[in-house]
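Researcher: Quick one. two chains, 229 residues in total.
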Amino acid sequence: GEDVEQSLFLSVREGDSSVINCTYTDSSSTYLYWYKQEPGAGLQLLTYIFSNMDMKQDQRLTALLNKKDKHLSLRIADTQTGDSAIYFCAESSTSGTYKYIFGTGTRLKVLA
Amino acid sequence: ETGVTQTPRHLVMGMTNKKSLKCEQHLGHNAMYWYKQSAKKPLELMFVYSLEERVENNSVPSRFSPECPNSSHLFLHLHTLQPEDSALYLCASSQETHGTSGSNEQFFGPGTRLTVL
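Model:
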């Protein structure tokens, strides 16, 4: 079946760039999403990228998609302590767009 | 209120209790979802509603009973739960279940942290 994989942990120093990676298996994926979850909170949509795009930038966030390798990444520039959270990658396919497949999340820790 | 709200935020219940979780979306969406988030596991989609009709039930035990009285409200009725049902229950909504145009992104509520004793 479809699968989405992420590394579990990432630590960076405040002010550095963070890169969170995600790989997926469903070749029919149309949209790929990044969500952020802070402690005790729900998932906040950060950005999404359509499968015919390579890159989407929104302020400090850049989503990069390598469709050939089925690899998605989220780059956070000038990482701040408030960026500490769990980041989830999710994908949906044309066969049922509500059927998101989520990764297990990457816990980002920003060190002051 | 804006976005997706959920009440209560925290709930502790015994295995013989009956309780309900409530979700309300103020986004004018037609689709609503219940997810279960357990530690160290991916999010599990439980139920999907489109215009108050259930379109998916992902083999969820009958001790979880959803109700969608209108497109803005979604409930999850709980009875005779087990300790392994302790988790964060997240509600989400989107414009449609099948996006004919656009990204059809899902917007999540803050969740209800459920503990079953």
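Chain A touches chain B through 23 residues (CB under 8 Å).
Researcher: Thanks, that's what I needed.
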